[in-house]
């Protein structure tokens, strides 16, 4: 979902410099791969709902709480990184 806007932001920040663009795309590709591995690892960790105990409700089972915890973690990470990019990128 965020790969295309990130590539557009990197193209704007590189400002036509091919070396910066190559390095930025390489870094983005690296972090996309790391995110894929971490996403798979988060799903394989069955105790994730214990980190966010408020996700466990009477209406849902453990798997529902686990899924809500994964979404909560990704939203928190997305907001943190978007805020950091807005603050540090000129």
First-last Cα distance: 23 Å
Strand content: under 5%
Largest sheet: none
Low-confidence stretches: none
Form type = elongated
Mean pLDDT: 81
Find the count of extended strands (DSSP E, 2+ residues). Answer: 0
* SSE run: HHHH
Helix content: over 70%
The total number of structural domains is 2
Report Rg. 17 Å
Query: Strand pairing plus helix content: what structural class?
Result: mainly alpha
Number of helices: 4
Membrane topology: Multi-pass membrane protein
Keywords: Membrane, Sugar transport, Symport, Transmembrane, Transmembrane helix, Transport
Transmembrane segments: 21-42, 71-89
Subcellular location: Membrane
């Amino acid at each position: 979902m965020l790969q295309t806007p990130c590539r557009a932001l990197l193209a704007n920040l590189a400002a036509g410099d091919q070396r910066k663009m190559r390095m930025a795309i390489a870094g983005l590709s690296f972090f996309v791969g790391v995110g894929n591995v971490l996403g798979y690892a988060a799903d394989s960790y069955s105790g994730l709902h214990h980190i966010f105990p408020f996700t466990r409700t009477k209406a849902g089972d453990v798997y529902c709480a686990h899924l809500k915890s994964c979404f909560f973690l990704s939203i928190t990470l997305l907001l943190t990184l978007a805020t950091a990019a807005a603050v540090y990128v000129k």
